[in-house]
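3.2 Worked example (two chains)
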Amino acid sequence: MDINLRETFLTKISLFQNLSKEDLQYITENSRERLFKENDIIFSEGDPAGAMYVIGYGEISISKGKREIARFLAGSLIGEMAVLDKGNRSATGIALTESLLLELPESFLSRIGSKSKSLLSILETMSGRVRESNNELEENYLNISTVVHDLRNAITSLSYASFIKNTPADNSMIVEWADRILDAKEFMTSIVDDALRLKNRNLSKIDFDNTDIMSVITSTVEIYTALHPDVKDKTVTIDAPENLPDCPYNRRNIVRVLSNLIINACQASDDNAEVTIAVSSDKNSLYIEIIDSGSGIDPRVISQIFDPMFTTKIEGNGLGLHACKSIVEELHKGKLTVESEENKGAIFKISLPLVQSS
């Protein structure tokens, strides 16, 4: 579009309607048109700002991680937050269709600000607060989504109810199945309780046991994951020495970690395959390895495997492994790592310190 058409276009956008003729002319002459094809990236999360954009035509998607948070059409202003508060991009912009954007240089704000430094300062402060609110919302979204993810895994234990329904009343197995259902109920309640504590940053109320961890590993295999559709056709074996040392751990959170890793290992393995849980220790730590016999993890993505929202599954949300790493490393001050070779499976290794750090 020519200069006059560009100026006319800008005057139809509320942000620019009260600018002086001189300022509007400055923007018109110092802006430039950018044509983006479908799926072109306009800016990426974490990049420095430098410019904001007005959409001439087309449709733009704004996403954070793998989650789309907004879409914008012609006449919308995008990318202004990072310019206003002089921060890096907090999201990624992608053209959903061929799109013409008018790129406005950062110097535009400096020019307007020189005439009203107080106004510019207010805008920068407001933008900073909006960014903080967005970050908090994102954290709460991850927290809620992680709870839903773990509850979905735990719910499979309630399948024991179908056994009770179809079993004669005098069968001795009913008591055991009922106990497993009650265990699952307590486990799901604890997940919700922990989420509420995390929301209030109150980690100090999470209790630590200092007892034999083998009971937790065994119950996770036999109760919490046994009826999961991706687990029940696999063989999960435990390889552990006798007389393992005690280590401090939070039972329900370690169950969450083990459940996720066991289910993932079974999903990666062929039907009727074996998944091994190898337990060992040294003078400083206790180690739990979950070893699958799948095809391994693509080396191009293994460095991203614990990132929030990253997933290689069609229906995955990318939160399970991120939550596992947070539980092991932030809550237990341990380490969660992965080793993998293509066509040779993967090993997820949990390291828990034998002495709880203060």
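3.2.1 Second chain
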Amino acid sequence: MSSLNSTDDEFVIDSDVLSSIRKSLSLARNPFDHYVNGVCGLIICLLGIVSNALSFSILIRRVMRLSTYVYLAGLCLSDFTTCLFLLPGYILNAYPLEIPDYDLPRTYAYTKLLIIAGAISTTGRVLSVWLCVAFTIDRWIRFVPSNTLMNSSRSFSNIDLSNSSSSSYLEQTVLQAQIKRAISCNETMEASIKRLRSESQNSLDDLKNKNESLERSLHESKIKVSELEHVLDRTKQQPITSNDTSTPISIYEQQINTLQNEKLELKLQIQNNQNLHSKEVTQLEQTIHELKHQLNDTENKLKLSEIDQEKLNSLNKNNSNQLIEKTKQNEQLQKRVIEFELMTSTMNSTNVVNQSLVNDVKRITDIRYENEQLKKEIELLKLKCNDRILHDEEIRMLRKQVDTSNNYRTLIAKQEAEILKLREQLANKNKIDII
């Protein structure tokens, strides 16, 4: 038992000895791996992740549904996965050179992650190569001229269709932007005109109130002056026939002088009020003149904006006509493509027909058939709606004719139940049509 529990000191390794062994071994890291595979590789991977994510988000839009953009989107996705799963290995190499190789965080889970990430990154690189090959084959089939007239005309028709669709879309976007800008300018002009009108109306109201108050003060001062003049005239005309001998005549003269002085003061006040009134009237006239100029300027701007809007509308009409013509030309080109395919199928059974164009023709025929079916269903729905309107009118007539009794309520309940059923059927039909 003592031999089982005994410990042997020969198997215990001292830490100093272990550190000396590690130093003696050549475990120093390679600076090439640190700078090239670590720092540069990490920067390139981060830039590749950001740029591929942005380009993928642009290429998956509804506008870019051509085969070229599909291949490019797949290439961006494969490069994105490659850069993302190369990061764990480059992070280890990016650690500083002072840290030895045995101190790097190579845990069991991290080594598993490195193995899986390496496999996925190699898969992404191989996939990007094959996508480049498929892209070149597609371009070669579409644009390289062949010996036969059919293939050359088909390639030119494809180029015309792609160019016409892209140019029409660009023209439509430019027109929409111009219309939006003109509408926003028109709205801002209308808001500024409303603001100027409200401000001018408020200033005119204030000036009118001030004018009325000045006219009232002038009228009151004129009344006072007229009263004083009347009093003076009366005092001058009346002879002094008073029996009071104690009050001398000088007192009456002093009163007359005071009244005259008051009269002069009132006249001066009237003149001052008139001057103020004339100044305010001139200010009013100036403000009215300025407001008229502003209104004229805004009206001219509005006229210019209306002219621009009319030009834009005319451009829109012309572009819409051009779009209609281009759609007609596209339909004619598609018809020609179909005729060429029929000619080649009857003349040369050995010639291989482009499968993409055949699929497009089939899709066009399917879409036309679906459109005809939708038109028929819409006509049926219109007939049902007309029947429903007639049914509602009959219900109204019944409500007018039926007396207020229990039968009246039961009939209404039945009619309403039928109406609800019809509405549910119409809603289901609409959902089916939308789907």
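3.3 Remarks
The chain has three domains: 27-144, 151-239+248-347, 363-434.
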